[in-house]
Write a structure and sequence with these properties.
With about 550 residues, the chain is mostly helical. The chain has 19 helices and 4 strands. It has a domain of about 260 residues. The strands form 2 sheets. It has a two-stranded antiparallel ribbon with strand order 1-2. A hairpin with a 4-residue loop joins β1 and β2. α9 runs antiparallel to α10 and α14 crosses α15.
């Protein structure tokens, strides 16, 4: 299937998903979808809560932090004890303290950054009982925060924003588990490996070589890995591995799974606030930036690598270095943008082998805050933060108090939105400066010059955005990068979630004001353009100097920019 028809099929599938999955999720979180109520009740009894027992934003945030901290501590302990636990046919040993900290932090924060080769480091128990569990749970946490912020816009004079325990339970039971189960059946049916039988040894009679092929529960792990925009795969080469991503159908399915919930949540937002047009406006802002970045990266990867061209080698099939031959350069570029403009981070090609401007696409996409469409939940609550800033700017332009969905955007809301928007850029820039200044940080890149700096910048941008993709040209499994990466992931997750929940509480407590003749509309083309402008400007002003020292100067060093 060519790139054109791949995009057509993907757009049609996502359009259907946006309408129907978005409506379904609104029904789930409004309590109208209850066909598994019998499965909810036992959990509520254990926790000591009920759907009608709602929480203030502080109680909601406290429950979220405690929940995540418990999984962080328990997961760390299980990884450290891996060698003594069952389901370990590969005889994997203990995971080092620094790597255990980085790995469990990565999966708890929905980052899924992997400083290890899965098939040679983690036992089946660790892959299933620790990492896959977190792929469900961390995705549910992100969606719950997004829904809490949506309630902030939809409620009036309310002191509560929902119940965290109810939200994650319903998210798991009604959304993540059913869809990932069906997708897992399709993936295994297409040839993705799914076994606990351990590695298999194959002897090639033609050349006398004996090879050990790792196997494991990759098929069903891949479904939630993509649906939850996690990205942490079973194999080291992730979705470039034929046992995890065997066909063009599975490759397309993985892209659809990654984009489905983040895009559909904009319809959920519109449905819950009573204005589909407002959800469509957010969708348009996401889709426009996403489409432009796909075009830039596809074009860059369909041209010759400037370093190869400078050596006198000219290709007619684009930049094929580091690409899986089954997918080619253009489909790989589409896949890579889909994974880095969400918080997924999975790869089916080597980003380190992209052209300088081809690598600029996924790197700069993360720098925009991963709101196009972003991760499950995190994309929606982050773009709503940008929307609040855009509304404030729009209100200043027309000379009246800014309003969004009838809620006045005042000093407290703007401060919270500004804090949430600036946490990630400040975290990434500061930690990149630290890594580039210390010997332990400069020892990580496998390349020198601008490309080596880009590898450092890419790694910390990925972790600070809870993305998880890597250029693969950085030795990240060191004590320095494991610890600094864990710091980046924790700040990139919780230092944004807490202000977002505080913003939800502030908005829910407000009453609504009717729209007037002078009200700045927030569901039309002007607002879409303003929101896009805020996203681009925040990312551009913060990261352009760093990008200039990395991929831009690397491209210019070959004598041309494009």
């Amino acid at each position: 299937m060519g790139l054109f028809w791949t995009i057509v099929v993907l757009v049609v599938a996502l359009g259907i998903t946006w309408r129907y999955l978005g409506s379904y999720m609104a029904g789930v979180f409004e309590g109208r979808v209850r066909y598994l109520a019998w499965a909810e009740r036992p959990f509520y009894r254990v926790i000591g809560t009920a759907p009608e027992q709602e929480q203030t934003w502080k109680r909601y945030a406290g429950s979220l932090v405690i929940f995540s901290a418990l999984f962080l501590g328990f997961g760390y302990l299980l990884l450290r004890l891996q060698g003594s636990l069952p389901l370990n046919p590969q005889h994997m040993g203990q995971v080092t303290p620094a790597l255990s900290l980085n790995t469990i932090t990565s999966f708890v924060t929905n980052t899924n950054w992997q400083n290890y080769a899965g098939e040679t480091t983690m036992s089946y128990f660790s892959q299933i009982g620790v990492l896959t569990v977190q792929q469900f749970v961390s995705a549910a946490v992100g969606i719950a925060v997004a829904i809490a912020l949506v309630r902030g816009f939809s409620r009036r004079n309310s002191s509560t924003i929902g119940n965290f325990w109810v939200d994650i339970t319903r998210c798991l039971l009604y959304i993540l588990l059913p869809i990932s189960f069906i997708a897992g059946i399709v993936l295994v049916g297409e040839g993705a490996v799914m076994t606990l039988a351990g590695p298999v040894t194959v002897h090639d009679a033609l050349n006398g070589v004996t090879q050990t092929i790792p196997r494991g529960p990759a098929g069903f792990m891949g479904s939630i890995m993509q649906l939850g925009t996690n990205g942490g795969g079973f194999f080291n080469v992730d979705l470039a591995h034929p046992l995890e991503n065997p066909t063009a159908i599975t490759n397309l399915l993985y892209v659809w799974l990654t984009l489905s919930i983040p895009f559909a949540l904009t319809y959920t937002f519109g449905k819950m606030v009573g204005s589909i047009r407002h959800g469509a406006a957010l969708l348009a802002a996401m889709a426009i930036i996403f489409g432009v970045w796909v075009g830039i990266t596809v074009y860059a990867e369909h041209t010759n690598n400037p370093a190869v061209a400078a050596a006198g080698v000219h290709s007619t099939v684009g930049n094929t270095e580091g690409k899986e031959v089954r997918f080619g350069d253009t489909s790989s570029a589409l896949f890579n943008i889909s994974m880095t403009h969400t918080s997924d981070g999975a790869v089916d090609s080597a980003t380190d082998s992209y052209t300088p401007m081809g690598g600029f696409g996924p790197l700069s996409g993360m720098m925009l805050g991963e709101v196009t469409p972003g991760g499950v939940g995190s994309g929606l609550y982050t773009i709503l933060v940008y929307a609040v800033i855009a509304v404030f700017i729009g209100g200043l332009m027309i000379g009246r108090t800014p309003e969004y969905l009838g809620k006045k955007i005042q000093a407290r809301e703007v401060k919270l939105a500004g804090l949430a928007a600036l946490v990630m850029p400040v975290t990434v820039v500061v930690l990149t400066a630290v890594a580039a200044s210390l010997h332990a940080g400069r020892a990580g890149p496998l390349n020198s010059g601008p490309h080596g700096f880009t590898e450092i910048l890419y790694a910390l941008t990925s972790q600070g955005n809870n993305n998880g993709s890597a250029m693969a040209g950085l030795n990240g499994n060191t004590a320095f990068y494991n610890i600094i990466g864990a710091i980046a992931m924790l700040l990139g997750r919780f230092a944004i979630i807490i202000p977002a929940l505080a913003l939800a509480g502030a908005l829910a407590a407000k009453h609504t004001v009717p729209a007037g003749l002078g009200t700045f509309r927030t569901d039309n083309g002007m607002f879409i353009g303003l929101t896009i402008g805020v996203i681009i400007i925040v990312g551009g002003l913060t990261f352009f100097p760093a990008l200039s020292l990395g991929p831009i100067v690397e491209q210019l060093s070959h004598g041309k920019f494009w």
